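Protocol step 6 of 9: fold each sequence in the batch and record its structure tokens directly after the sequence line. For illustration, a two-sequence batch is reproduced in full.

Sequence one:
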Amino acid sequence: MDEKEEEEVGEDDMVSFHHLYCALKKNTLLIYLELLYFYRSHQFQKTFKFPYLKNPHFDSHFDLKDPAHLAGKSLLWLARDSHSLSESLRDSVKLLGALLYNRLDIAETLACSSIHGSVAEIVRAQLTPPEGVDPDGQHLRIMDKLANCQTAEKPISDVILSHLNKIRESEELSLASKQIEEFAYWNKRRHELIKAQADRVLLKIRAEEITKELAELEHQSEKLFFFENRLKWEKKAAENEEINVEMSNK
């Protein structure tokens, strides 16, 4: 009895060891396959290069990032299109914009004795070199042109603001009148386009009606002149019959 139990226990142990061996072998195979896949995927890895737009040229517009440059160019453009300002004020705003934009070549052409005093002070403060540093020639030329500028009691911003308040009412009326004219033109143009579109639709409908009427007239004409055209129809029928016979013989 004991030997039988020992034999049964021994057989169960052998089965357990067999299952354990198979499991270990299976796990080893999976690990091997994973390592092989990892190796092959990295060995045959492809690199794709996508073309991109290179921009070696500084366009002085979309490439501007410095806030001072952005403000300076904005002042240059605003002064260029602000026709209600006097020439001296426009040149003063342009000079300030050129200074912020770091376009001293433009600033040198704009600098003169009629520049507003507050702008001249700002330019001098920016272009005056610190102690112990030799001044730049272009800086000296600009400051020399501004030497005879009169001292201003108010900053240029207050002068421009007072000018805008003075012309605000007249400019609003002018803008309103322009908008009324443009809206009237737009409304007139809209009606013209709608009428043209409606005319095209009516012409299309009329063309379809004419085509239908012509087809009806053709059908009535065939009815009215049937006996007069009998020989023609008989000849045509005979020709069709001959064609059918030839086709059947082939």
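Sequence two, same batch, same settings:
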Amino acid sequence: MLFRNSVILVAVGVFIMIINACTIVRWGRRRVMLISGLLLCGIVQLIIAAIYDAMPTNESVPKAVIGLSVVYIIGYNGMISSYAWASGGELPSQRLRSYTFGMAAAVGVFGTWLATFTAPYFINPASLNWGPRNGYIWAPSCFLTAVWVGFYLPEVKGRTLEEVDEMFAARLPARKFRKYQCIGMTRHDTSPSEKDEKEAVETIERVSVDQKGASKVAETIVNPL
């Protein structure tokens, strides 16, 4: 029974990720998908915990938990996991992208380890024996994260890396990223290029040569001999 349920959940998760890979470029709005996925997962976990808490011995509860777990996998794999990794690669500045993404990945791995390490203590009958009631813990975390995404995670679908840098340089609130019209005045545009620097050096050299020539002419006029 447990093996069959695990196979069902894994198969649904893989299927949803394949669909998501085909649609993320065309319809993948990061903020909407992340907020929707977090709210969906939070609500599902809350329902699972409430059902099990109210009817722990009912024979229909395990079936309901499995069905709701499928919905949870759809929300997590289809809306949270994929778009979280995409945002982690798109939002950091080009200069600090590798460091920022590496730190984000490390924090994510640590969170996964923490959840995996502590879950048995909440679920096992020999410990706290919460069972599915541990949804009471994880549901609020989903809701809080959804609020954070709404306030602080910008929408960058269809934007180039230069446009993302420009919008961050303009200090836009996250909610205004989606409708902002970029004007191309990024930091890369304002910094002098190698060609400009070379032309500036040549201009300075020409001015210096002209000044020396003018000095010699003036000296010849004053002292003809």
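Proceed to step 7 once all outputs are recorded. Observation for sequence two: The chain has two domains: 1-153, 190-224.
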